[in-house]
Amino acid sequence: MNKKLYHGACLYPELWSRDVLLQDIGMMKQTGINVARIGEFAWSVFEPEEGRIDISSFVEVIELLYEHGIDTVMCTPTPTPPIWLSHGHPERMYVDERGTVMGHGARQHVCTNHPYFRERAAIITEHIAQAVGSLPGVIAWQLDNEFKAHVAECMCHTCKGMWHDWLEQRYCTISRLNEAWGTNVWSQAYQRFDQVPQPGPAPFLHNSSLRTMYQRFSMEKIAEFADEQAAIIRRYSAAPITHNSSIAFHVDNERLFKNLDFASFDTYASRENAHAYLFNCDLWRNFKPGKDFWIMETSPSHAASLESYAAPHPNGYVKAEALAAYALGAQAFCYWLWRQQRAGSEQPHGSVVSAWGQPTIGHRQVLEAEAARQELEAVLLETKPMQAEVAMTYSDEAKAYFKTEPHRKLDHRGLVSDFYGRILSLGIHRDVLPEGADLGGYKLLFTPFLPYVPEDYLQRALEFAAGGGIWIAGPLTGGRTEEHTIPTDAGLGELEQRAGVKTVYTYPMDGTGSVGRAFGVSAPLSHWSAVFQPMEGGASVVGEIREGLTPGLAFLTEHRYGQGKIVMLGSMPGGEEGDAMLCKLIRHYTDEAGVTVKSDVTPGTLVAPRQGANGQLVWIIVNMDGRGGSVTLPCQGTDALTGDEVPPGQVAVEPFGYKAIRLNLPLF
What we know:
Elements: E1 6-10, H1 18-31, E2 35-38, H2 43-46, H3 56-67, E3 71-75, H4 83-86, H5 115-132, E4 138-142, H6 157-171, H7 174-181, H8 208-234, E5 241-242, E6 244-245, H9 253-258, E7 264-266, H10 274-284, E8 293-297, H11 317-327, E9 330-335, H12 363-381, E10 383-385, E11 390-394, H13 396-404, H14 412-425, E12 430-434, E13 444-447, H15 455-466, E14 470-473, H16 494-498, E15 501-508, E16 515-518, E17 521-526, E18 528-534, E19 540-547, E20 554-561, E21 564-569, E22 572-573, H17 575-593, E23 605-612, E24 617-623, E25 629-633, E26 637-639, E27 645-646, E28 649-653, E29 658-663
Parallel strand pairs: 1-2, 1-9, 2-3, 3-4, 4-5, 6-7, 7-8, 8-9, 11-12, 11-13, 13-14, 14-21
Antiparallel strand pairs: 10-23, 15-18, 16-17, 16-19, 17-22, 19-20, 20-21, 23-24, 24-29, 25-28, 26-27, 26-29
Keywords: Glycosidase, Hydrolase, Metal-binding, Zinc
Pfam families: Glyco_hydro_42, Glyco_hydro_42C, Glyco_hydro_42M
Domain Beta-galactosidase C-terminal: 607-659
């Protein structure tokens, strides 16, 4: 891909006449759109009858776009298999956990593991790659669209056979599976792998190991499909390949992006949920280290379908959203969609242009985002995001454990984004890391909501602490084994032994009147919790339970480990007092770790530190909440857009405003 910032939109030329297409291309150019995504739902256009394939209409579209200075992201159309593939073939269709067989329509209605689907998906992908792979306008590929967005684990007969094969490869013998899963509970022991059920309809709840392992099996299989599709494309095209994913979908993003070339995600976060949007930027930046990520979909105004709609963004928000993405490492910021659809299930969805060809309520927002992109592009291209000194680990596999065991309907996505939001609100520059990421260069590591701590991660985190880092583990971390059973050697397994504590109890604290005190703050304790007692010569108590069922025991401890520390947070402080306690905890260990990449930016405003090849530091400051904000500049600076000198001290930004300031003295 060329070294420039992309501002894009999804285009569906198969839905409109050539005259409308030419009109759209002209308006896109006027609006500043420089990349279009096409083809993701066009299988029935490419192959209206089985075996009759013609890609020529899209070749013409790509060439037209290129002639007008607009590049193309070409998609494979596999999320919407045509009627000839699904009609009369229920064995090819997706089956949900209730045993309901999907009919044709909507999307993702076919099982992606079915061999005939895989065969036809490979054939259509190869034809597309052959037809357009060498065209100069094709700068990237997107596989499918939003894997597992509307469906989860398939329960069809094909998946059942693959499940049994997967189990046999994993456990080798059925006795090992029975031992690992504890299947003597409720007489669930199996004699052969082909007896192990899928977690479909049942009178009560399935074995935890069965449910979690089936999710992991499903995640692996969809990633294998992505690998297969990418391998086909690479035979005909050198353009990089991605997929537009999300942490909301039933995938393991770390595994999914492992064999792809760059990472991208879709988002429809509102202003009120801007912290979740920034969480995604900080995570996607780290799926493919050293490579820019893309935002492949967001709305220029509002998300909507036939059944629901969101409120349109306030004027100015889309500009702030775009600049925050670019500042945090995005190369592209793209909309769904360009022209409003006149038919289908998403007719009310926000777009840049209406179905009748006029600017929509979001059009002005797009123009503002484009003007800001042009103004900041040079500064952004000569710098890159700084690595943070503070990291937080995220795991999609942990999401599977919480789906199996949600306690009182705990939402993993909400838990992690709220925890992240506290770090963000304190002005700390942070990275969100996938589980397998390198921990080098960090000073402070948070590992919340990771029920199973893999041996590899544990060893790397211990090395991090031994080398001088501070590792804060918890809450709800370490209480389950890989097979989703409870450890029998210690409440939190090897983790607690290394942390110098003994887990005395684990129990749900909600409704027990439990109150803990730490950092001079008392707060109610909540969720399923681990209660500690320091080992002799081990950890020291930082947070003590004062009221409830276990007064006098600890919920927060710290233990010297090598040159650093392991901090155990066994319970989640709740309410306003709990929020204050967590913020004090973060500040305390940020200071102790010697974190310098931070600012006193006001909540609702973002500081994204970037660094040039010559070491020059630039702060991109963006107000995200529409209330305006400020930050203290620690040294003399220069406004990168006007050239004006900026003295040390407070710098204000207007509602949804932005600034780019070069720091004249090295700070970090």
